Amino acid sequence: MQVEPQLSGQLRQLGVHLDADRTTVAGQQLHLMAGHEFSVAQGRYVFDMASGSAVSITNLLYRYAELMDAGDLESAAALFTHARIKADAEGTAVLDSAELLALWRGLVKIHPDGTPRTKHVVTNPILDIDEEAGTATCRSYYTVLQQSDAVPLQVVAAGRYHDEFERVDGVWRFSFRDYSMLELTGDLRDHLRVFGGGSG
């Protein structure tokens, strides 16, 4: 089966160039698979961020950031209703969504405008989607910026999320998040109470 021109362009962006017959790469047959994947002798590739599953999953990442920055801790925690949350590097603390919400309520400083005065920026999502099984994993980076009456605009934290997802009744949802990978910290005193922030 020949590959349509639009898909050929996507392959070229990944450094994979089809032969003239548009069915092989370097003489090796191109095998299209579910989930907008393809394989050749060089290996297995995952691509096409426009696919429905990829958009749904990354939207969950971005929705989490949007809700946290709005100060809507309840709705942010609800995203993890069916998930396990790894809260420490050793994996000894595994939370459910109610415990996660309680942690946030005790930790995150909410300012007079009803928000934590932050912007969570989630980048570099690396997805691996199993369409047949209805499961997926994603590794991503996060950067937290903050500006308040007490602190100038600055980066206050950065780290990684490792997430797992499941598709139930056609809808993707979180099934696991490793929340323990806070790797870089700045001035958190006006964001997290443990660093000296008041009740807000």
Quick synopsis:
This protein has 200 residues and is α+β, with helices and mostly antiparallel strands. Helix content is 22%, strand content 36%. The strands form three sheets. Strands 6, 7, 8, 9, 10, 11 and 12 form a seven-stranded mixed sheet that branches.
Structure commentary:
This protein is α+β, with helices and mostly antiparallel strands. Helices cover about 20% and strands about 35% of the residues. It has helices at about 5-15, 50-70, 75-80, 95-105, and strands spanning about 25, 30, 30-35, 35-40, 45, 85, 95, 120-130, 135-145, 155-170, 170-180, 180-185. The strands form three sheets. Strands 6, 7, 8, 9, 10, 11 and 12 form a seven-stranded mixed beta sheet that branches. It has a three-stranded antiparallel beta sheet with strand order 3-4-5, with no helix packed on it. It has a two-stranded antiparallel ribbon with strand order 1-2. A hairpin with a 2-residue loop joins strand 4 (about 35-40) and strand 5. The longest helix is centred in the first third of the chain and has 18 residues, at about 50-70. The model is unreliable at about 20-50 (pLDDT under 50).
Q: Which descriptors apply to this entry?
A:
alpha+beta, 4 helices, 200 residues, seven-stranded mixed sheet
